[in-house]
Each structure stands twice: as C-alpha cells, then as structure tokens.
Amino acid sequence: MVKVALLIAVSEYEHGLPSLPGSKKDIQEMERVLRDRNMGEFDDVKPLLNPDLVTMQIEIERLFAEGRQKDDLVLLYFSGHGIRDEHDNLYFATRNTRQNQQRDVLTATAVPAQTIQGFMNRSPSKRQVLILDCCFSGAFAKGLSATGRGLNSVPIQIATLLGGEGRAVLTSSTETQESFEEGSVGIYTRFIVEGIETGAADTDKNGIITVEELHEYAKWKTQAARSDMKPNFFPVKEGYAIRLAKAPIGDYKLTYRKEVELWAQRRQGKFSSILLSALEENRKKLGLSPEEAEKIMAEVLQPTQEFQEKRLLYEQNFEEAILLDFPVNEEIRDELRYLQHILGLKDIDVASIEEKFNERKFTSAGAYFERGLKNYEKKNDEGAIRNYTKAIQLKPNYSVAYFNRGLAYHNLGNYQAAIEDYTEAIRINSEWGTINLARAYLERGIANYDSGNKQIALEDYTQSINHEAKSSRTYYERGLTYFDLKDYQAAIDDYTQAIKLNSTSYELDEATIYFERGLGYYDSNNKQAALEDWNQASVLKPNYCLAFYNQGLVHENNKDYQAAIQAYTQAIEVNGQWESISPSEAYYRRGLCQYELGQFQASVEDYTQAIKINSEFDLAYEKRGDAYHALENRELAIENYRQAESLYQNLFKTTERQRVRRRIRDLEQQ
To answer: Which SMART domains match (predicted)?
Structure first.
C-alpha cells in the first residue's frame, strides 16, 4: 500500500504552441505539498518537465502499471496545453506536439485522453486521482469508467487510511473552456496547493482532506478569482472519498482561517461590521495576535479582492467607452468582450456592471455634449461630430454644441460645414456671453481663411475684435490675412497690436508674431525692421531656424556675406522645425556666400550637403559646377553642369538649360 504521484508539466513547445512558464512552477508546488510528511505524505513523487510524446506516454503507463497493487493510491497531475479535436476528444500536448499549415494541432503528436483512460482502466490500483490544469480538461470525463475488477469490498484498515475505492478526476475547466495562469502558477493549481498547505480544504475538520473537499475548496477560490472558470469534479464509485492529504487538528490558526473561509464564501468576500466584530472576538478566544489574524484575512480575501479589482477595471473601461459613444459601437463592444474574457468575468458580472449606467443619464442632450467633448479631447473628430449632432437633435437651440461641432468639422478640413455651424451658433446665441461670440467670429474667420474666403475672413476678424478688443490671436489672424492680401502696413499694424496684447495674455507664441511681422516689413521693403524682428524672434525662440535663415537673407541682400554665413550656420545648427523650406536651402545659400568670399572649397562642401538632402536640387549642381570651375577642376565642373542640365530639361527650364549648355561647351573647347 503506497501513495505515488507523477507530476507532468509542459511549459516549452518546439513547434509553435505558446509557452506556459507557470507550468514548471505548478509541479514544483505540487511536489512540495505532496512529499511533505505533514501534508500529502506521498511515498514517491516524480516530476516530469517538458517530456516528448513517447516519454510522456511511457511514464504515465508506468505510473498506473509498474508494481502497482490494488490498495495503492495513484495520482497523475498534468499542467500544460489541453487540445480538443472536432469530435470533442481531448489530447494533452507534449514538448514536440506539431501543428499543420492551418495551425491545427496534429493529434498524432499529442497524448489522447482515451489512452490515459485505458492505462487507468487496466491498472490494478483501485484508488486513482487525476488532476488536470489545462484547457478543455472537462472533456476527459467523456467515456470515463472504472474497472469492474475487485470493487466488492474494501478492508477496514485500508478504507481508514486511504478512503473508498474508485477514481476521481479534478479538472480546472469544462470541456469547452480555457484555463488560465495568474502570476507564476495556474489558478486552479494555486488553490489546490493552498488547500493542502493551509489545511483549509479540511472542511469537516477531521484532520483529513478528501479529494472532494480539496476540489470544492479549489473550485470556490478559483471562481472567486475568475468567475468564468468552472472547475469540475468527476468521481467514479467512491472516488470522492479518497483521502489525499492530512490537515492539522487543534491548530488555532487553521481554526480561525476556516471560520474566515466559511463566511467569505457565504458573503462573497464582503464582511459586515457585525461579522468583523465576531471574528475579532474569535481571534481573541483562540489566542491569535492581530498580525496573524490580519495575514490570514488577507490571504483568504485575496482572490475576492482580485476579482473586485477586475470588475472595477472593466467598469472604468466601460464608463470611458460610453463617455465617448452611447450605446457603444460594435468595434468597441468587441474590445469589451475581449477585456471580459481576459479578466475572466461572466456575462452576468458584466451585465450587473453595465446596468449601473442608467440609459436615461447617458441619452440627454447634455450627456451627448459631454461625450462630444471627450471625443474632441481624444482627437476623435468623427465621434465628436456624431455626439454633438445627437445633442443638437435633442436640443435644437444648443448653440455651444453647434460651435463645438464647427471646431470638429474644421479639424477634418470640412470648412463649409464648420462655417455653417459657427453661423448657426452666432445666430442662436442663446447661451453665449460676449467673449464666446468673439470666439465664434474668430473661428469662423479662420474657417473662411482656410477655405480661401479671405475678404470675408477679414470681416469676421473685425466682428470678433468689436466684441472683444483684447484678443492677441484675433489681431494676429487678421494680420496674416492682410499680409496675404498684400496690405502689408495693415498686417504690420495688427501684428504690432497682437504683440502688445500678448505681453499680458500670453495667448500666442510671441516669437511667431515677431517672425510674421518681419515678413511684413521685408515685403514692404523695410529690410532693417525685418532684420530686427527676426533677431527678436530668435532671441525668444533660440531654435527658430527660419528666423536665422531669414536674417541670412537680409545680410546676403546687404552683401554682408560673413554675417549671412553666420546666420545660415545658426539656422543649420539649431536643429529646429523648418516648416515651409528645407535645410538644403540654408546650405545652398551659405554656399553662395562662401563663393562670393572666394572660399570655393567651402562652397563646394555646402552645395554637396544641399544635394545630399535634395538630390533634385538643380541650382545646387549648377553652382557646385561654378565652384569647381573656380577651383580649376574642369572635369568635375562639366559633370555638375551636365547633371544640372538634365534636371533643368526634366523641369522644362529652357533658359537655365541653355545657360549651363554654354558653360559646358566653353569648358570642352578649352
């Protein structure tokens, strides 16, 4: 009469199945509690990690056959991938289990459950326990039967030690369910081990943990952690009564723990002040310290707390989803179902969460407006428009909703729709103060500007200023429009006013206003004022490469080539945002200045950098040809002129092409 166990874990797979790192920890934990003389008291426990197909089958057959006697207790534990075929037959994956091209498992490379059932049926042992922590493990019960040999009577002493004869199959899931790891071990295994180690599975307090008690304990704790998992128990004959492990008798910690477990199960982990008071008195009676009791309480309630945390996480995500769209669209619903699956929540759990969000609360005009804001903040303009539209349908005079929908339309480039919404918001003006009207005219002006209606944009900006004369942004936007209409003095005046107002409101990036005013001065032929503004822009924003570049243009125009070179160098080195031009232009213009100073080699290097950035830079090739010519490098000069000629031809630049052809001809005749 012996107790023997084979613990199989397959954590690594050679042919594409996902690894299960927790399986290795599973058998280590099982081995520890089964070997312990104060717990499992097994005579022989053999761990088998990552076996191949043949090894796994041989070891299972040996477990049930070699040297077995009628009164032996035999336990087989498996942690790994369970696989189900189209006929609902169960297989256990091994290290070398393979998949076909459709990624279906080749069942010939896995161990069939029917094979294990055959080993069990032929075994002389009449006490057999099978613990399966794998997907679809409940399918093992298909075709389950007990051998008819020797089931007549059980000697009293054997029954006392090991319980009744029979077979018990404990599974972590049903025949259609997946099982899950949590942390470093399988969830079901975690509570099998806990039930044995703490003795908490000994529900009748007789010092013995039967297979049925252990399963019921692990099942309750598993479902407290993941409500969607449904561990199953399949006893045959008196298999439920097989005695698997010992539990301490008279252990006050265990006594207290069982009381906490009992009430936690009855109250689903929610303890009232009455229960807490009763448990506190029980703690004192048993002589436990507050720290010991607190630790036990935390261990018992951990699965329930984990479950509540998962419910809360789902609730937070659901609330976030309906704040964007109500009811949620099918795409979001699919994502919520996936989250539910990962968190291990039942449909009933999810339903109870979603019912908390009253439909009435989320279908008012205000609720749709709030969802519009949320979508807009997340840059989901389509979602914002959808929700603002529903708000407007429920409340036709909702001017703020019209205005905000206009902003969303504008972001999408639908300027006409934006203009119409701003216009309607201005017309209704039911809930707006003066400042908001000023903003509405401003935004409509920007929409008109972006759609090419610059004269109408000017009118809107002026209306905005009439309602609120202290907005630097409105003066700035009107200045841009005047500039485009070539009314440079009006643009300069508006930029100046914008700078003045911005000094207290900080509404805009002041460097940008100086830069734009510099453009107005430059185009009105006041180059010195332009230079001063671009200098100020680069002081306010030291990485303003365009401001440095434009400084270079003024210096170059004044034939101050050294100052121009310095400005272009700063433009290149500050590594800022170039926006409308390429840094190749800065290299090119610096090359021109180097050439004017007779620094021909430096000029070549700058043109080369420009060409590296823009390989189609026709002028750079031509000017590099000039520099090579100045360096008396005839071959490289001709080569660059020819490259420039080819690019000019492709771009139909006839005059430029003729110019470089003449230079090529002159050089070839030398």
So the answer is: TPR
DSSP 615-670: TT-HHHHHHHHHHHHHTT-HHHHHHHHHHHHHHHHHTT-HHHHHHHHHHHHHHHH-
* 84 lies in the same domain as 191: yes
What's the pTM value of the predicted model, to 2 decimals?
Answer: 0.55
572 within domain boundaries: no
Q: How many domains does the chain have?
A: 2
How big is the CA angle at 409 (ends 403 and 412), to the nearest 5 degrees?
Answer: 150
Residue for token pair 């020797």: 150
Q: What is the CATH number of the domain that holds 58?
A: 3.40.50.1460
Q: Which residues contact 272 (CB under 8 A, 6 or more apart)?
A: none
CB 31 within 8 A of CB 38: no
Contact 1, 67 (CB under 8 A): no
What distance in Å separates the CA atoms of residue 90 and residue 562, rounded to the nearest whole number?
A: 83
Same domain, 245 and 281: no
Domain around 270: 250-329
Eight-state DSSP code of residue 100: -
DSSP string, 506-540: --S-HHHHHHHHHHHHHHTT-HHHHHHHHHHHHHH
Same domain flag for 119 and 198 = yes
Q: What is the per-residue pLDDT for 141?
A: 55
Closest CA to 221 of 303, 296, 295: 303
The tokens describing 289, both together, are 């310290």
151 and 43 share one domain: yes
What is residue 329's DSSP assignment? P
pLDDT at residue 109 greater than cutoff 80: yes
* Residue 600 maps to a domain: no
The pLDDT tens digits for 515-542 are 999 999 999 999 999 999 999 999 999 9
Contact 353, 318 (CB under 8 A): yes
Q: For residue range 473-504, list pLDDT tens digits in order.
A: 999 999 999 999 999 999 999 999 999 999 88
Rounded Cα–Cα distance for residues 562 and 529 (Å): 20
Q: What is the pLDDT of residues 3-54, one digit of tens each?
A: 999 999 999 999 888 888 888 999 999 999 999 999 999 999 999 999 999 9
The residue written with tokens 């914008």 in the block is 498
How many other C-beta atoms lie within 10 A of the C-beta of residue 234? 17
DSSP assigned state of 240: G
Q: In the predicted model, is pLDDT for residue 286 greater than 50?
A: yes
> 633 in a domain, yes or no?
no
Helix (H, G, I), strand (E, B) or coil at 128: strand
